[in-house]
Amino acid sequence: MDQKQKSSRTDGDSGLVFNIQKFSLHDGAGIRTLVFLKGCPLTCDWCSNPEGQSYSPELAYNADKCIGEAECERCARVCAAGAIRMGDGGKAEIDRRLCNDCGDCVEACPSKALELFGTYMNIDDIIRVVEEDGGFYARSGGGLTLSGGEPLSQPRFVERLLETARRRGIDTALETTGFCNWKDLESVCGHINQIFFDIKSLDSEKHRNGAGVDNALILENFRKLRKGFPELNIIVRTPVIPRFNDSPEDIKAIADFISEVGGSCEYELLPYHGFGEPRYRQLGKAYPLSDYKPPCQEHMAKLREAAQSAGSILKSFP
Question: What is the model's pTM?
Fold first, then answer.
């Protein structure tokens, strides 16, 4: 297993979190709190959370918020690595080759142009945030959903967090790429009410080109999940990406695979969007799909028809 597949530097009591989003309505039953964990073995071209890919904190920079050297220059003065200088336009520029993501410039920046994506949090602190909205969960059937990145890049922390949440009466859900150690996935399944499992393509080479890894481990883990936990509420998701998996044949192949594996689960098709593009810029990265457009409603309807042709196992189409 290479470095990208290793878990983040966390113990069982603390984990690396890059966002907590409240009042989500699309990632599990009811009103939910989403906790996003850093670290992912995939490098999908369309990733909407690029700040979740790295296994360590990362410096983000929003040049639009920078007030420039005429008013500030504090970030450059505190950067011991010499990674920040003031550019020709009078605003900060970051040399990513020198930056060690220490965060000193973030503390010095008065305009919040600099931000560190990734904070170590312990289980009690996360549960405290989640339980602030306990009243909404009780009325709506909501709860906690773990997302990423790939949450199971931090397996021991995720297992303990979910176990604690369930012990406190919180409904739990997990979103996963499926590219993980089976034993890690198996260990958390007893602590979740539902799981969202991504299947992006049945074509292994296409999957490798678009997501950075092939699909063999993902498909095998899905088979094991369906066999080992037949009563678990499973929702399969496919992000529909132009020029990658947006043909009726692509979608039908996935739906046929789900049907062949057996069991009852829901299948969701999620149309491509470019909402993550600004965060690529903030991380100093180029967005690979800058010229892509979301699929139209008519095309999505054709893809849903292709999926439904696989049989009644497919019950839900947003």
Answer: 0.91
